[in-house]
Amino acid sequence: MTPPRGSDTHQRILAVVRRIPRGRVATYGQVALLAGLPRQARLVGYALHALTPASAVPWHRVINAQGRVSPRAGHSAADTTQRIRLAAEGVRFDASGRTSLKRYRWQPAPSRSP
DNA sequence: ACTGGGGCTAACC
DNA sequence: GGGTTAGCCCCAG
Description:
Elements: H1 7-18, E1 26-27, H2 28-34, H3 41-49, E2 62-63, H4 76-88, H5 101-104
Parallel strand pairs: 1-2
Helix pairs in contact: 1-3, 2-3
The protein binds a DNA duplex (13 and 13 nucleotides) through residues 5, 9, 27-29, 32, 37, 39-46, 48-49, 59, 62-66, 69-73, 75, 78-79, 82, 96.
């Protein structure tokens, strides 16, 4: 059974991003995986790139595996916005503009506590 | 159909 | 922790 391709793929990605709780972050790869699209982290980037400011998608909660906001091409202002928004939710960044993924990474379904 | 590039990731040094 | 190399799959021209 092969998942349908097309705009549906983007919608699926956005649906996952929309589920990211406030004060939490997720990596591109994680979102892709949760969306049922493994190895398609870049697709997430494309999907978010197509977003409009009016969309109710917390795109700012999506960061790369390095724990920092990915510098997009020609839109450096958005990077700053992303950091500001996250900071407003309680996500702290260090001097290197990096955050603790171990701490803020969104875990959709923790089976049990360790 | 082909080529180049991308809001990535993991592995390696 | 930071820079480099390769692999991944998809979109735009």
